[in-house]
Design a protein that fits this description.
By secondary structure, the chain is mainly β. It has one helix at residues 17-26; strands spanning 2-5, 37-42, 46-54, 63-65, 69-77, 79-86, 92-97, 102-105, 112-117, 120-124, 128-134, 141-150.
């Protein structure tokens, strides 16, 4: 996992060309003005989802992990916590599903917490089980962009 502020995006461009493209787009001034929903950049290889929601209670929800994509989660506005734990330490709740491109896991009793606020991004790799959209301190409205980056 990688966690940083968008002004440091140039430090991560060498990781892969698709990650570089996603971070470049996240650094653009108009990215936060995109309509809610799915936006394709490189058809199924690189796309992003614009989301608006209210954070979920800390004790609610499952963890998820992906096989074919990594996530780049970027907070345009608001704040949230993303819970993270290596998938080897998680108990599977629902086996990997091709359609949803995710396996689901029970929330463990211990995990790391990423505290995300406006202008921050995190890159979550397939081994990073994660529970996004969680309340940090108090319930908060969040405007977020999630890039899906194919890892092939």
């Amino acid at each position: 996992m990688i966690v940083d502020r968008i002004e440091n995006e140039h430090l991560y461009k060498a990781v892969s060309p698709r990650i570089a493209k996603a971070l470049e787009l996240l650094g653009s001034k108009d990215i936060g003005e995109k309509a809610e929903g799915k936006h394709e950049v490189e058809t199924s290889k690189l796309y992003f989802l614009v989301q608006n929601y209210t954070t979920k209670p800390r004790s609610n929800g499952l963890f998820e992990a992906h096989k074919k994509y990594l996530d780049i989660q970027f907070v345009v506005d608001g704040e949230e916590s993303i819970f993270v734990e290596h998938i080897s330490k998680l108990k599977e709740s629902k086996a990997y599903n091709e359609k949803d491109e995710a396996a689901l896991y029970d929330q463990p009793s211990s995990f790391s917490e990423i505290r995300m606020s406006k202008g921050m991004f995190c890159i979550l790799f397939p081994e990073d089980g994660h529970g996004p959209c969680r309340t940090m301190i108090s319930e908060c409205k969040v405007h977020k962009i999630v890039f899906k980056v194919a890892i092939d």
